[in-house]
Specification:
By secondary structure, the chain is mainly α. The chain has eleven helices and three strands, in the order ααααααβββααααα.
Length: 284
């Protein structure tokens, strides 16, 4: 038989245990409503490999060796960027399927959507709609390696230009704020543009991809890419060239140069899945 003097102690212990259980339960609820929701890695940019400064390609006398060295140097960064885009694209497709099924998106998904929308210049509606998702999917997509390599070679003189060597600018991107980059020696009188300076080749690649995927001037390129993806799931650089007429003041001549570079260097092979390489006739 329990002594009367012991009962208050037991009751107090039971109350303490009950209080502890309540505190733990509340903490778990708070964690799942806030902590877990906050612990999301927002896709600000791809984690691109550090390939170091632009090598001295001009010192390579054999042209074919120089070209291969240029492609080998830049291709890993392009592939990493495309892998990041594919991952985010798969995520967007999953969210679109949820929306279509009538499932409300979680707050962490909405925050990630807002980050992607800001990055790719998409204005989201309230609430987020299927139209918003389709526009994001039009923009969050790969740039075929053949096209990225051809443009890098054309814009940087195979990595030998002053802008490539001193500013990591392989894609000829301009900026329009005084002091934002390097002033071209042959800039037309009255022009104010400069050639953008980048901290690394990775930053230059990231900016180039974002430019093609968001700028209004390249909407045709994005539409051509979407059509290719819908038709056969394979996106070839040669099929997107026509959407880049606004990239250069040379217009049609520039597009023809890109086609020639892709063809003569047999770059389309880099756009194809491995299972198609043996059977496809690529750049004869």
């Amino acid at each position: 038989m329990t002594e009367p003097s012991e009962r208050p102690v037991e009751e107090r212990n039971r109350l303490l245990l009950l209080l502890g259980a309540v505190i733990i339960a509340v903490a778990v609820v708070v964690m799942f409503r806030t902590g877990v929701d906050e612990a999301v890695d927002l896709p600000v940019a791809a984690d691109l490999p550090d390939v170091g400064p632009v090598p001295d390609f001009a010192s390579i006398e054999d042209v074919n060796v120089m070209k291969e060295a240029f492609f080998d140097y830049l291709l890993p960064v392009i592939e990493a960027q495309n892998e990041w885009l594919e991952d985010n694209r798969a995520y967007l497709q999953d969210l679109r399927a949820r929306l279509e099924a009538g499932t409300a998106l979680r707050s962490r998904d909405l925050r990630r959507l807002e980050t992607l929308a800001e990055r790719y210049r998409v204005t989201l509606s309230e609430p987020v709609s299927l139209v918003d998702m389709d526009e994001l999917l039009l923009r969050v997509d790969i740039v075929p390696p053949s096209l990225a390599l051809a443009q890098a070679a054309a814009e940087s003189g195979w990595g030998r230009s002053r802008f490539a060597r001193e500013g990591n600018n392989l894609f000829g991107e301009w900026c329009f704020t005084e002091g934002c980059g390097m002033v071209p020696q042959r800039r037309r009188p009255g022009a104010s543009h400069e050639v953008t300076l980048f901290d690394s080749v990775g930053h230059a690649v990231d900016s180039y991809f974002r430019n093609l995927n968001s700028h209004p001037a390249y909407e045709d390129m994005r539409e051509l890419r979407a059509a290719s993806r819908e038709e056969n799931g394979v996106i070839l650089g040669t099929e997107l060239v026509d959407g880049l007429e606004m990239y250069s003041e040379r217009r049609g001549a520039y597009l023809e140069e890109l086609r020639h570079m892709i063809r003569i260097n047999r770059l389309t092979r880099l756009d194809l899945p491995e299972e198609q390489l043996d059977t496809a006739s690529v750049n004869p």
